[in-house]
Amino acid sequence: MPEINMSKTITVSSLSELHTALANSVGGETILLQEGNYGDLTIRSYSGYNITYPENVTIMSADPEHPATVTGLDVRNAANLTFDGINFDYTFHSGDLISDRPFGVSDSSDVTIRNSTFNGDVASGVSEIDDGYGYAIGLSVRGSSNVTIENNEIFNFHRGMVVSKSSDLVVQGNDLHSIRMDGMNFAQVSSLVIEDNYIHDFLGSLNSADHRDMIQFWTAGTDAPSTDIIIRNNRLDIGDGTYTQSIFMRNELVDTGQAGQEMYYQNVLIEDNVIVNGHAHGITVGETDGLTIRNNSVLHSDGGDPDGLDSVVEIPRISVAGSSQNVTIANNATSDIVGNTGQPGWSVTNNVVVQDQDPTKQGFYSDVFVTSTLVSENGFHDFRAVEGGLLDTLQVGAAPTLAPVATSELSAEFHVGNVEDNAALYHFNAAFSSVDMGNLPKGTQFAWDFGDGTISTGVEINHAYVTGGTYEVTLTLTLPDGRTSENSLVVAVAGTDVLSYASSKGFLAYAYGSEIALHTPGADNPEGIALGNVTNIVSVDRKYVSDILGQDDFAISLTLAADAPATAGELVRLHNSFILTADAKGELMFRAFTTDGTEVRLQTAGAHVSDMAAHDISITLNDGILAISVDGTVLDSEEMPGVLASVGNHNMTFGNQFHSTHFQGVISALNISMNEDDFAAAATAAATLARSEPASESVQDVESLKAEHGVDLLSYTSLDGFLAYAYGAEIALHTPGADDPEGIALGNAANIVSVDRKYVSDILGQDDFAISLTLAADAPATAGELMRLHQSFILTADSKGELMFRAFTTDGTEVRLQTAGAHVSDMAAHDISITLNDGILAISVDGNVLDSEEMPGVLASVGNHNMTFGNQFHSTHFQGVISALNISMNEDDFALVNSAEQTHIDTFVFAQTAFDVTLADTSEGLLYDSSMASDDASHALSLQTVDDSLAYLISDLTLDPTDMVFDFV
């Protein structure tokens, strides 16, 4: 509030006293209005006194908590007037027009309206379209200059404010909401700043012809363009309201051919705005000369409508008329930029596409924004970029979305991400929480409820869901001083089921664990989907099957029976993604169109699907191999680069009415699924943990924790098969081809054994690992590939029995180890070991180191390839057997811990974990990660480190990242 010169202060309590005070004012006065209703205030040249004051005259409420009310305002030909803290209150009356302007300033200069409320009203008795919605115009400014409108609240109007034919304008800090159509309208204005406004939660009349906009400019009906415009640091938020266009600057006179460049908007700057809305016109600018759009976050939300897949018209973007000149579009986060075709004078740089429609594509909101900030609080969307993520790294988007989450109160914020290559596993990170505008203090406790009946503690946690569904995840923070904060969000897990069909049930789609019964015309045949009916092709909406696009693990299974011999034609198609056809000989062809632009074809021999018997057909993609099976027999397979492409908006169809031949037959059953291996592994791990019986719910020893950060990752013996290790649990892997009683047979090019990448990828990025195997050749001078994790490492043997290990590192180099004296082709069993330790990569055979090299960096992690044994695409194949295999990491770390059993330990240093641990014996060595530790089970003390690095038990040394030292006697 500005300072008041009490010597020139006049207090009034009625409209007549107010006019008297104005008549006696000479400039510099402050007129205080006592609480009350002053009715309609008219300040015009015929008021009977001079209204062009040489200095500012302020009319303000004496008590801001009990403001004076004005029911109408008409200021004309005035100068140097300020209205401060007034309640401008409009009441609808029968006969009012929707275009009425109860509060207006015209043909005036140096007028300010601040800290006031424009309280609108809803129509009644007008029409079904109008009744119950805001009516009239909140504030009108026409033909005026040097006008400031700041820190006002405007609501319940048809339009919030309309400003025309005016100049030198400041519109800042205003709160506009509950508007039916437009928030702010501008026409033929110059030198305008629109800054720091909050425009949100519109209440639109959806059955009306309204064209809703939060900020709109137009040229229709004007004779000069708007120029020198700044739209900066505003928040335009759909909230829980109806969608609108956000910043919409159409140039009607130009785009309809009524005017040329003389009517182009000129010198427009749009920067640092946060726009969250549900219409494509996020920032739309018509023909302009001199346009800069930079550092804006143009984002999508459905507001009060249910969330779901959206059409293009519902997703905000940046659009600029292509004939605009001198255009810069830079550092914006948006779904799309329209209008740029490389025109001269255009600069479009460092913009990032962000989107909330496809989690498999780059820029998905849950990848680039802290997940908990995606959930609006009381309608307020406060998206915050992940620190170190794409937007933060490139510094793209509006400043509020780039700022770290920081509040004066305790705020529980967390990020959720699907762990790469595992659809069932999610990573939860509470490090984004804050208090008192900064980081959380030492000793803060983090408690998680994952919504599926499981709980855990720790700053960062990995959690696997065993089935698809929607799970409400809750993080509860507890500070050492007892303050708590809780935040929840729903994590949607897609699960394995995508689409199914049975003649008795019809089509069922699956969305996050829920069944959706589809009404599908033509699919009500009691026998199944009839393929020969060209006039009634059955189709399923693309959205119910598109989840498999972009997946590296899917299965399409169907039961097919021909109605006639030698029938041929198309069976199933998702255009530009895949096609399944049958020829007259009963053979099948599956064509897959991939993301890298290639087409992979599978062709059966021996399918005989035209024999009029029912046949079970299965197409699968697993471990990079696309395969087709008929009645349980694999009839063809090919390596598939990339994954199925997603192009266009075509639905999935059965049969093809445009072909000249049509398969006569019936599909009686269909199932489409994805990521079955991930969820099967999660279920196995959960069952294993459920069967374990620790000493108590909060006690684990070092052996049960080894698999979390070190030692065993994967093992194989001919007796046990493949075993993976995760969080203290053994996971028995079902690995086709690995059931040979002698071991993994390497020479069978038609049946290459592979292990899912996720079970071995933990060694990538590690500076301490070991790969050990026992190998025996079946023939002398045999040669070929032994094992490979593509683009990470390859182990081969030559015909002389020598080994080569090729390691591909994170710094782009390749390190090669070449043995001399291995003799692995002598048909005896040999123990082979490849290790990385202290930066030295080494290969040993039967205990003897045969080569070693310094290795810069660590093993690279590139692509989604699985680990394979042998290689079907090579011309030579090693004939032999791997009878044992073990892959481990961080063995030295755990060896140091275990050596504590022989050493008296005085000080214990720990790292974070999801487990609670109690120390009962000071000679017992423990390594664990957010834990409880004590020399007495009844006196547990909370420990926490600042990162996830391994920590050790160190004798006679205090090394505690939390500055908390525990000495045990």
UniProtKB/TrEMBL annotation:
It holds the Pfam family PKD_4. Residues 441-498 form the PKD domain. This is PKD domain-containing protein. It comes from Puniceibacterium antarcticum. The lineage of its organism: Bacteria, Pseudomonadati, Pseudomonadota, Alphaproteobacteria, Rhodobacterales.
